[in-house]
Give the backbone structure.
Amino acid sequence: MALYQIKNFSEIDFVNVDAVQDRFILPSGEVYRFSDHICHYCWSGGTVLETDEGEKKYFCLQCGNKLAWSKFVNDFLEPKGDTLEFLIPEHWTNEEKQQWYEDYKERRLAEEKVREDILRFGRE
Ligand SMILES: [Zn+2]
């Protein structure tokens, strides 16, 4: 394991780090490591950092955003009514978050349709 002193996240050398073990310490003293979570804005895995200790903070190297969990009520997939949580940019307004969720729902419903079609008609 290596501990890298960095001034900001852009200094992280993606190619040469050990994503499982390495830690990155910012001038503020905060220590980050690679997270198992994906960024729900980029939909890319392996680009999210999270703080090592204390209350979790997240940062996505791909889109360059601080991320935070946002909760939405599932009003489109059965069983409805449960809470869905996504890691999306922290600085977004509620309106932007809601817009993202609407887009997400559309995409998920399209995926569900594909899945149903495959079940019904087979893959070919
Ligand atoms: Zn991202």
Remarks:
- The pocket of zinc ion is lined by residues 39, 41-42, 60, 62-63, 65 (CB under 6 Å).
- The beta strands are 3-5, 23-25, 31-34, 48-51, 58-60, 65-73, 83-89.
- DSSP finds one helix and seven strands in the chain.
- The mean pLDDT is 93.
